[in-house]
Amino acid sequence: MTGFRVKPGMTNKAKGIPGHYTRVGGMIPPKHIVWSMGNREIDLSDPSDRAWWIKQVLMHGRIEDVLTLDFDEVERLLPGLYLPRPVRKLWSDYFAAKGSTQPIPEEGP
Fold first, then answer.
1. Which of 21, 64, 68, 95 has the CB geometry, 3.0–4.6 Å to 12, for a possible disulfide?
2. Is 102 exposed, middle or buried (0-12, 13-18, 19+ CB in 10 A)?
3. Domain limits at 63?
4. pLDDT averaged over consecutive 10-residue blocks of the chain (109 residues)?
């Protein structure tokens, strides 16, 4: 199972990621995931914003939000994300069950 991949140049509506899009790569996150940001925009083309967004979706997203993620990217970023232990374990177990080649530490960075 893989998530939806956000590719450069895709139109905002084609991305499938929940939120209000302000430009290609830019979005205002939905309140059910990030309730504390108001109407501040994040830039999904920026690696640090994107990693932050993935962390928020893993911790607060609904299944339909999680399914918009690129699971290869989640697996690659997981060792460097600060996540609650149960969330990290769930994803570590998922990638281990699917035959991940990279070990994911129990603790975050």
1. 21
2. exposed
3. 12-97
4. 38 45 64 73 86 93 90 92 94 87 61
